[in-house]
Amino acid sequence: MTFLNLILLGGAAAFAIPLIIHLLNRRRLQVVHWGAMHLLEDVMRKNHQRLKLEQLLLLLIRIALPIILALLMARPVLTGMRQFAGEQQISTVILVDDSYGMQAGDATGSRFSRAREEISQIIDQLPRGSDASIVLMGSGGRTLLDEPTTVLESLPAHLRDRQALGNSVDVTDSLRRAAGEFELMQHAAREVIIVSGFQASAWGGEHGSGRLAALESLTDSPTPPAVTLLPVGGGSTDNISVGPVSVSAIILGVGQRFSVRAEVTNHGTSGQTDIPVHFDVNDQRIRTSRISLAPGQVTQVLFNHTFDEPGDHHIHLSTEGDALAEDNHFHLVLPVWDEVPAVLVNGVPGQRPLEGETDFLEIALQPFRSTDASLNDLITSEVVLTNRLNWDLISENVRVVALANVERLDRRQLEELERFVDQGGGLIVFPGDRIDTAWYNEEFHRDGTGLLPLRLGPIGQPRVQRGTATSGARIAARRFTHPTLEYFNDPRNGRLSDALFTRWYQLEEPIDEAAASLVNIFSRLDTGDPLFVEQAYGNGRVLQLAVPADNDWGNLPTQPVYVPLMQRLVTHVAASSAPPVNLLAGEPLRAIFPESVAGQRLVVVDAEGQEHMAEVRELDGRGVLEFTETRKPGLYRVLPPSWDGPEDEAPEEQRFAFNLSLLESDLTPLSDEQLNSLATELNAQLVRSAADHSVLDRARRFGQEIWKPLLWFVLFLLFAELLLQQWMARRRLA
Amino acid sequence: MAALTDVITPSDLKQVSGLQFFARSVVEGFCSGLHTSPHKGFSVEFKQHRPYVPGDEIRRIDWKVFGRSDRYYIREYEEETNLRCHILLDASGSMAYQGDGDQDKFTYAKRLAACLAYLMMMQQDSVGLVTFDTEPRSFIPHRSRTSHLSVLMKTMEETETGGETELAGTFRTLVPRLHRRGLVVIISDCFGDVAGMLKSLAHLRHRGNEVLVFQIWDRDELEFPFKKWTRFVNLEDDDHMRLVDPATIRKSYLANLERFRDDLQRGCRGHRVDLVPLVTDQPHAEALSRYLASRMRR
After folding, report:
1. How much is the average pLDDT of A524-535?
2. Fold of the CATH domain B81-296
3. Tens digit of pLDDT for each residue in A479-492?
């Protein structure tokens, strides 16, 4: 403990005054020679102890008063909790939440603008020569400047240009980034300040473990930083968000009708009526639905549409009317293809309709053509016998090859098929009763280096339970995450578990972990055996099923789900070579071009229409363009490279949609209690403003001044003295 | 007739002729207000007439009856029941207390004893005196000679206070030496063990004595008027002292006092002992009237 006004501590000597008065009072006593001592003695026996105690207490209070008063005026400072030495320079990393939730606020400004003000004040208060860095927490941690700076004034200026457009905060990543920044900084005294709206959805309990691990990496250093939390909440929590959005097809064909189902959520505490939900396609308004939402309600809005032209089409769903506009939009890019040519290799042709191995599959892939409807099918299939499978057939624009109960391929066919998949084609393998299992396992699978993802085991049978065989195995019902099956999570789109299988191949799962990580078993039977397995092969993809394409081993082909399931499986493997086009804001944009384009610089148009240049690099025999400035949600376009070839073959522009994760849409901040427990968890101190921070900083540098509690204590003693005296006087009078 | 004390205060008198003079002035002043002469006495009482038989003294014939009835009758009296009184005067240390008044408790007690002795002597009663503290100091047996009075007065005047009050112990040694069926007047502050004292009183009563207790108080002891921090030094033991803020304990003290007096009063009433509390600022005449009143009741 030190004192700011040490001289005034001498005032404590004033304690002698009440003591002297007390002693003098005692000296001025009278002496009485008394006879009735026995009457007095009784009283004294009972009261003496208490009286003495009262007198002593009163005296102590009176002595304590001048001492504490002097102590108070000397301004004592507790140095026990001091972390930094005096005016020592400090390295500060400010983590600022720039997720879009920070755009919320009230009439005085958004949360982000308040955060900016507080940060600029905090930076103002840093001692000269300190260095500082700002880490933006939205869309994964990233730094505002390339490296920490000692030109402190530049930081608020840079921050002023920023808007809160980031995706949800990534605390773990931001803390790691902060640790990285400290490595570049000079001073031993360190502080991390987290400025955020502290929304419950992003900071709640379930995000705790990674956060702590990241914090440990920060505090494990020999000079662990002090951690301070500065919440900048406030404002209305009313908000409406659009998304997520699901589409009925993975790839659309021209003229194919599809539906878009969008979720609209009211995160606020008040009901909303007559909210418009707009459905725009390629910047043209197609339809507007009006809905009402109770507090906390989620509603689905369904739009149907058909595209007339192939290409990447932009779908934009939006609503309006609330304060936080960022999450009122959802963008979607849908690839529309003219057609997906597929070759179905029929291993066992039939004599009558639906007897052939591929008959059901053929109908499922082009249902409209089969029924002579005027509508268009996306997939155009050609059925061939095994011996007709050759390079000339499949190299011509074919995207998918399906093998149905093919006994075996000859060596040349196998090599051509491998080449086909390696270059980006899709392959679907249906087994059957005619296949040569030994060839499949040795040549086709080839210890994991071949096309076939898994070895074929024995043929599975329904389990025997209590003496009677069950009717068969079904697809294990669960929530599907694979893009081909997601569609069936909604029971309105049919139930996969209705299908019953009487026999199937028991596919052998690799024991080796590395090998297992290469294959994706995305659906199983309820016996636990794999049903659908996929594996990447070169630029293409192979899909293996445990059951045949016809109804010999089960009733799947006669189920309503068969058509959409097969359509989705085929379009999935067909589209496998194309990089994802619907992404989260902040994720990198990847566009694939022919190898010949590598080295060219192309134009990327971002969501606000600004043009950026990006270079196409050569990677694995393809030209890859990567663009990372995608924090702003919306439509991004990569304009086609200059083209010397024929005009009708010129590549089209590629489109990408970036959306916000909807985590930040719920604007409810952490309660005070939760904030306190968060502060405890992070071993941090909680301040409410830059002014609070400056008080805290002073305490950290010089120790905590304790004159305030002392003042309260003096007041308490004064009152105690008064009350005690009054009480004693009342007893005297009684 | 105006009493002597009306013009001369007892304190002046004390200087002139001491206790005897004081007693005389008080008693005569007191008696002047009574209708019956105190000289008549109580101890010579007519009992009955009986016929004269030869051998009776001629002088005991009641000639007035002979004149009326022409017969000789002898006039018979009760045995001469001269009152035997012992005055027990407490000379313990606590009796030395003097507050703001002009006399300490012991002086007041001595004077009271003197007045009573004088009064009784004038009534032809015989009076003895015992002074005591923890034990009897002087014992003067009762006599009814007038000259005895000056012995009593002299003894009293020479007695100084000292020692502790110990009535119970004193009485234990004293009682066998007192006559049965006499009057015992105790002048004391009665400080000390109440139960022991009451036991002694009971013993006295049991032997047929009339007991009258004058309890002497100083006004200070009854009201405890002290304000400032005070060191109370025991009059009976100089080493025993207490430093007290009197204001804080006054209430408890008075309650304690009340209890003490109550116990004593109840005990005395139980043994048919008259307890007469006297405060040193009360005139002695008042004490005498209480004495006579108590005598008349018997």
Report:
1. 90
2. Rossmann fold (3.40.50)
3. 888 888 888 888 88
